């Protein structure tokens, strides 16, 4: 198994819950709001995705941004991942501090303070980072050469999302040529993410469009290879495209993230994965007949993809009104003050970033407490 030992994979959770009085209690007794994870459901998601790639040429490099929780990352590594993907340097630092030895930052790292942290981190683990401009490359190369470390650079190709990345094959080839032989860096291949297509609900359309988009990265790879420069990797893809772009010839790594926890938005896209994440909340007010107020709002439930759902009452529609700390529900059933409910957030990734711990449960009983070590690590 790459990157993490079995004992390291369990130590974080063991340390975290030795004294925790919540272990063994029914989840409904917990204080609210509490971020919950159905451990068995998440394990099934991890096993399903790992199983899909077990005998394929592309390998899983799960995206840490989904949960930011080291225990979950280690469970993904144990299931067969070759390393982790991060959005932020701070997330990568958390992973390396906790024994993950192969980390890709699928994002640009810019500014002298960050570049210094990056090259120091590269002394402790295999670190790859996305670049799309010579200015980034030169800064990293200079700092890495001084620090005597080596940073692996993946040139980001914009395959239609319009975020970072070079838009044309020729521009990518030009950058690949320039960074050959530079000190402190090595050309690690291409970063390409088809994020503009992951929300296409029609699966066949998503498959066709995302394969066409990722095909641009594969063509770029071929162009570079024809000049004699080896391209060891294309890293990209998502939980919504793992079975389309993830099996494309020339794609080596799949950066799927949300499959580990799932959320309200994603389950429409890949229903083969289960919603393991929920937020335990309570009814705190019944100000009038048919109206209830719950004790979480946008400060506790990522809502960029819409309002959360109530697991026990899927037909109760939460109107688009989330205050900072309140959700107001109209036309409610006969809920009592203090009644616990499970909210399914529309976006797992921003939700996890709002909490410091995940309470893992099985069959409604708390089995573990997992710190979210990289919560709030934005830099
Ligand atoms: C660079 C990158 N790779 C992969 C993903 C896929 O993550 P998910 O599986 O959660 O859609 C994302 C999502 O934002 C991303 O930004």
Summarize the SSE layout with pairings:
Blueprint: H1 6-17, E1 34-38, H2 39-54, E2 59-60, H3 70-78, E3 84-86, H4 89-97, E4 102-105, H5 112-121, E5 126-131, H6 134-147, E6 151-156, H7 169-178, E7 185-192, H8 203-226, E8 234-236, E9 253-254, E10 277-288, E11 291-294, E12 309-310, E13 327-329, E14 340-344, H9 348-352, E15 357-362, E16 365-371
Helix pairs in contact: 1-3, 4-5, 5-6, 7-8
Bound molecules: pyridoxal-5'-phosphate.
Using brief descriptors, characterize the structure shown:
single chain; 379 residues; alpha/beta; TIM Barrel; 8-stranded mixed sheet; 8-stranded parallel sheet; 9 helices; 16 strands; elongated; disordered N terminus; binds pyridoxal-5'-phosphate
How would you characterize this protein structure?
The chain has 379 residues and is α/β, with parallel strands linked by helices. The protein has a domain at 39-261: TIM Barrel. The chain has 9 helices and 16 strands. It has helices at residues 6-17, 39-54, 70-78, 89-97, 112-121, 134-147, 169-178, 203-226, 348-352, and strands spanning 34-38, 59-60, 84-86, 102-105, 126-131, 151-156, 185-192, 234-236, 253-254, 277-288, 291-294, 309-310, 327-329, 340-344, 357-362, 365-371. The strands form 2 sheets. Strands 1, 10, 11, 12, 13, 14, 15 and 16 form an 8-stranded mixed β-sheet that branches. Helix 1 (6-17) runs antiparallel to helix 3 and helix 4 (89-97) runs parallel beside helix 5 (112-121). The longest helix is centred in the middle third of the chain and has 24 residues, at 203-226. The radius of gyration is 22 Å and the shape is elongated. It binds pyridoxal-5'-phosphate. The site of pyridoxal-5'-phosphate (PLP) has 13 residues, from loops.
